[in-house]
Write a structure and sequence with these properties.
CATH architecture of the largest domain: 3-Layer(bba) Sandwich
Strand order of the largest sheet: 2-1-20-19-18-17
CATH topology of the largest domain: D-tyrosyl-trna(Tyr) Deacylase, Chain: A
Radius of gyration: 25 Å
Largest sheet: 6 strands, antiparallel
Number of strands: 20
CATH class of the largest domain: Alpha Beta
Number of helices: 11
Strand content: 15-25%
Shape: globular
């Protein structure tokens, strides 16, 4: 029996059927366009403003590349004041942050070793740290719980993504606690952050800025036998300074406790460390969705364009203006560079427009490959549809935007924004790390996203006999 010519089309589930099958609450918005012609193929709720979550980082990456250039490198400096006589610094050693979001303990150890190799043997003064090359902000988003590692302070210096490692072990009914600035090779203990165990069940963590230190407490009832987690750093300059002083001490150079400075005294640069090129930093940022990297490179881009900036909102406002002109967006309303802020809004149509605007720039090559999963949730080994995209996740928000290469080679640009504002509004600040029902909702949203991509491949991109 012959089938009708449009049988294959009728067999393809509609977007409404896909959403209904997954029982996904809330709203799904999407926009799909042909990458070569720019013609719109399928859209729904495409002009509905939605929190874009970490899809924001794709806009930030484009903004930073435009302002700073793909080859830009951030520089961290070690300098001396008062001159150097027979290897002795007559004044102070300065640690000068240059906005490098990838600085880690291993790098500071290398810099301390190089300082010794440069002939420095002692310092009459002390260690001064300058972090004000970017705005000094205690956290990215004040609405997040205090203890989440993805919401650290932002300044012109960052160490280990401004996270400190907290570890606890139980023996004979008592707990031992460590706080350190670990990286691949080193695990220096730190004192700028301290943890106290308290005999309570909740809240699990509390934070106070006390005596110039990050003072944490943790509920004894939540610790179990042992474990570890990364906590956010609120004093990046002191953190970096303390770790550098430890590493200098290991090389025989005593520096003492670091002190913060807001302006430069007259100084002589002894050595510097340059980061990887910006394009590589951004590729890692898009792959691992690092909030701190997004905020630091976004702020650096704005300062390159305008000069000093006061906060994330002002910087994001400049990025919105830039995006409206450079990326053909009509109403970007971002409040930061990472997508963590709850007040950011973007439409699927605007996101797809931005990707269309840069389709020939090579931007796709630094996006992460989207991995398809089978009905049991296991990764599909042999994919016939190629997708490079940026994901985004907040509580009851899941977003995905990028490029599709269909089975017949047709390239398409897409953005899918899913959100349930009603469920999101019910979440208290304390619940934001893992609200009830959030994980299952997110799984459903991701299944909808994959099913939509498969629909588009079958409907618009599959070669027909």
């Amino acid at each position: 029996m012959l089938r009708a010519p449009d049988f294959h089309i009728k067999a393809i589930p509609t977007a409404a059927e896909i959403i209904k099958e997954q029982r996904l609450s809330g709203r799904v918005s999407f926009a799909l366009a042909d990458a070569e012609t720019g013609s719109w193929l399928e859209c729904e709720n495409e002009q509905t403003a939605t929190p874009p979550a970490s899809v924001t980082k794709a806009i930030t990456a484009l903004y930073a590349l435009d302002a700073l250039g793909a080859a830009h490198q951030f520089e961290t400096q070690i300098a001396a004041t008062g001159g150097i006589v027979e290897g002795e610094v007559q004044g102070d050693i300065l640690l000068i942050g240059g906005g490098d979001p990838t600085l880690d303990t291993d790098t500071l150890a290398q810099m301390a070793s190089r300082m010794k190799e440069a002939g420095i043997v002692s310092v009459k003064g002390g260690l001064k740290v300058f972090e004000a090359g970017l705005p000094v902000l205690q956290r990215i988003d004040p609405a997040q719980p205090d203890h989440v590692g993805y919401n650290p302070a932002v300044t012109g210096i960052a160490l280990n993504f401004n996270r400190v490692h907290f570890e606890w072990k139980r023996a004979n009914g008592n707990y031992s606690v460590t706080m350190d600035g670990r990286s691949e090779k080193y695990r220096p203990d730190v004192t700028f952050a301290a943890m106290r165990i308290e005999d309570r069940a909740a809240p699990v963590y509390t934070y106070r800025d006390r005596g110039g230190r990050d003072q944490w407490t943790v509920a004894k009832g939540a610790l179990g036998r042992g474990g570890a987690r990364w906590l956010p750093v609120r004093k990046p300059g002191l953190y970096a300074g303390e770790v550098f002083a430890t590493m200098a001490g290991a090389n025989g150079i005593r520096l003492g406790k670091p002190q913060m400075i807001d302006t430069f005294p007259e100084h002589e640069v002894i050595l510097s460390h340059q980061s990887a090129p910006l394009r590589q930093i951004l590729r890692d940022m898009l792959r691992f969705s690092t909030n701190l990297t997004a905020e630091m490179v976004g702020l650096a881009a704005t300062q390159e364009r305008l000069g000093p900036v006061t906060d994330l909102q002002a910087s994001a406002a400049e990025m919105n203006r830039w995006a409206a002109g450079a990326l053909d967006m009509t109403a970007p309303a971002l409040v930061d560079h990472s997508g963590l802020g709850d007040a950011s809004r973007l439409t699927a149509l605007d996101m797809a427009r931005a990707l269309l605007a840069v389709r020939d720039s090579g931007f796709r090559s630094i996006l992460r490959e989207f991995g398809f999963r089978d009905s049991k949730g296991k990764p599909v080994k042999e994919q016939t549809i190629w997708v490079d995209a940026k994901t985004g996740t907040l509580n009851f928000v899941s977003t995905l935007a990028g490029y599709i290469t269909a089975q017949d080679g047709r390239e398409m640009v897409f953005a899918i924004f899913t959100a349930d504002p009603a469920e999101r509004a019910k979440i208290s600040r304390a619940e934001r790390e893992g609200p009830r029902g959030g994980r299952e909702w997110n799984r459903k949203a991701k299944r909808v996203q994959q099913a939509l991509i498969e629909r588009w491949d079958a409907l618009y991109g599959r070669a027909k006999a």
